[in-house]
UniProtKB/TrEMBL annotation:
InterPro entries: EamA_dom, EmrE-like. Pfam families: EamA. The keyword Repeat does not apply. Keywords: Membrane, Transmembrane, Transmembrane helix. It comes from Shewanella marisflavi. The lineage of its organism: Bacteria, Pseudomonadati, Pseudomonadota, Gammaproteobacteria, Alteromonadales. Residues 7-136, 144-271 form the EamA domain. This is DMT family transporter. The chain crosses the membrane at residues 35-57, 69-91, 120-137, 143-161, 173-192, 198-219, 231-251, 257-276.
Length: 293
């Protein structure tokens, strides 16, 4: 069990490097880019990129088409909202909002999957959410920020639904279904905008960002099959640090003192509290032994 937990955490940490790179790539879109067209190009290229892996796996099928349909279409809506947020807000603000998803994953896991969590897991998650509020500063909320928050809720629900898929189902099937089954809905989004926004530069960025997103999706599928959602969801917070780093490297963005305080509340409890909890249990065990002797 401990090995699966560590493996799940490691896979999710690696995946979050790629999801941060995905956020960065959207910031490279030309001005006045159409979010729906970008989403369509991203999903079509995702399917094309995954087909070789699907053929290599022996063209596996799925017995959970309804679940994939729900994940795909809700994910398309969430993806569109996130793109709109990234086009309108600073990278750090979007990342701060989006990383409320781990808290939602833990709460949803308790409500719908009957997962049980230790006290330090719940405390770390609550402190992380407080850190997000510190970074966000609720007075700065606007429609774009609300769109990102809704996207985070959708993301959390989709991650949790992965627990209902058997570990025997090929990851390539999960990723292809996620992009393929929502194409009719995305085409409606593009048609609503008048099929505008295509350019070769947008296509190139779609290919680049898609490679990052697919890498994250594959690592995420594998991670959430190795451990309970609540046990590894806090590792999603690591993506915030990667976003801060990449924002500094490529956009000359940096967190102010309040931002660093919020980031500390998000990350440090996940690193420190488990160790403190183990030491406390060990100390209590020694106390019990002393009392008995």
């Amino acid at each position: 069990m401990q090995r699966n937990l560590m493996l799940g955490l490691g896979l999710l940490l690696l995946g979050n490097v790629f999801t941060a790179l995905y956020d960065v790539s959207i910031k490279w879109l030309p001005a006045q880019s159409d979010a729906a067209m970008f989403l369509l190009l991203r999903q079509v290229t995702a399917i094309l990129m995954m087909l070789p892996l699907w053929f290599y796996a022996g063209r596996p099928r799925t017995a959970f088409l309804k679940l994939h349909m729900i994940r795909a279409n809700s994910g398309a809506v969430g993806g569109l909202l996130l793109i709109l947020g990234l086009l309108s807000l600073p990278l750090a603000t979007v990342s701060s909002l989006f990383y409320s998803a781990p808290l939602m994953i833990i709460v949803m896991g308790m409500l719908f999957l009957k997962e049980r969590h230790s006290g330090h897991q719940i405390l770390a998650t609550v402190l992380g959410f407080i850190g997000i509020l510190v970074i966000l500063r609720p007075s700065e909320m606007n429609l774009a920020a609300l769109a990102v928050l809704v996207s985070a809720i959708v993301f959390a629900a989709n991650q949790l639904m992965l627990r209902w898929l058997p570990s025997s189902e090929a990851a390539s099937v999960t990723v292809i279904c996620y992009n393929l089954l929502s194409l009719p809905l995305v085409l409606l989004f593009v048609a609503w905008q008048g099929f505008v926004g295509f350019s070769w530069s947008v296509l190139g960025i779609a290919l680049l960002s898609n490679s990052f997103l697919l890498a994250y999706q594959l690592f995420s599928v594998l991670a959430y099959r190795k451990a309970q959602a609540g046990q590894i969801a806090v590792a999603e917070y690591s993506g915030l640090l990667f976003c801060v780093l990449f924002g500094w490297l490529w956009f000359d963005e940096w967190l102010d003192p309040m931002g660093w305080l919020g980031a500390g509340l998000i990350v440090l409890p996940t690193l420190i509290l488990p160790s403190l909890s183990r030491r406390w249990r060990k100390f209590r065990g020694l106390e019990v032994v002393r009392e008995q002797t």
